[in-house]
Design goal:
Elements: E1 4-5, E2 11-12, H1 15-24, H2 38-41, E3 43-45, E4 54-55, E5 60-65, E6 71-75, E7 79-83, H3 94-99, H4 102-111, E8 117-120, E9 132-135, E10 137-138, H5 142-152, E11 159-164, E12 175-179, E13 185-189, E14 194-197, E15 200-203, E16 208-210
Antiparallel strand pairs: 1-2, 3-16, 4-5, 5-6, 6-15, 7-14, 8-9, 10-15, 11-12, 12-13
């Protein structure tokens, strides 16, 4: 068989050679997988995207990957002017409700499917009485923000984290950890202030995304 490999690495054969291959396969069960040209679609499975790479026209950053390939994503820009809630318990917060309803609809339209993940509401002074909660979208915990900061940088406004400063055990149900636009971590009253949030969520490795 005469073959020619072009600049894109594709093998070109004649029509007669193709027909001979088909005839040779008669009676056998074969599977053909057609792969679209990435240059045409500009989309690849998110499990193949490098950590730290932005996707979807710079809207999101891939910040981590689980062993089975699912990708952890953080929105690059903050969603602004959101109040945390009446207490610093993230599981009962207005912020959590907004992210898993109104904002969830937006990213479901974009990706089609989101994976559940756990938010650990361990307070900064080490109390675990708030426990953990399951989310499709969440505000980053302090630990996640610290781990992913090298990929996402500073926000353009003060942003909420889901980590409480203290808990009822220390007679503090109002203070939540925040990060200033200069990267300084502090705390603020959960009820009186409207800050921003950079949502965190997880995509299955097979979800196709455009790579910047």
């Amino acid at each position: 068989m005469k073959e020619h490999i072009n600049m894109e690495g594709c093998i070109t054969i004649t029509k007669d050679e193709a027909m001979k291959m088909i005839n040779d396969f008669k009676g056998d069960s074969i599977t053909v997988k057609i792969i679209q040209n990435q240059k045409e679609t500009n989309k690849i499975p998110v499990g193949d995207v490098e950590i730290g790479q932005t996707i979807c026209n710079g809207k999101y950053v891939v910040v981590d990957r689980y062993t089975h390939g699912d990708a952890c994503i953080v929105r690059k820009e903050t969603i602004k002017n959101i109040r945390f809630g009446e207490t610093n318990n993230y599981s009962k917060s207005n912020l959590r409700k907004y992210l898993n309803t109104e904002y969830l609809n937006e990213i479901m339209d974009e990706f089609g499917e989101i994976e559940l993940h756990t938010v650990d509401m361990l307070s900064m002074d080490g109390d675990d009485s708030y426990g953990k909660c399951e989310n499709l979208v969440s505000a980053m915990t302090f630990d996640r923000w610290r781990k992913y900061h090298k990929y996402i940088g500073n926000a353009d406004c003060i942003e909420w984290l889901s980590t409480p400063n203290q808990t009822e055990k220390s007679n503090d149900t109002c203070c939540v950890r925040i990060v200033d636009s200069n990267g300084i971590v502090g705390y603020s009253d959960c009820y009186w202030n409207d800050y921003g949030v950079r949502p965190f969520f997880i995509l299955k490795s097979s979800i196709l995304v455009s790579v910047d």
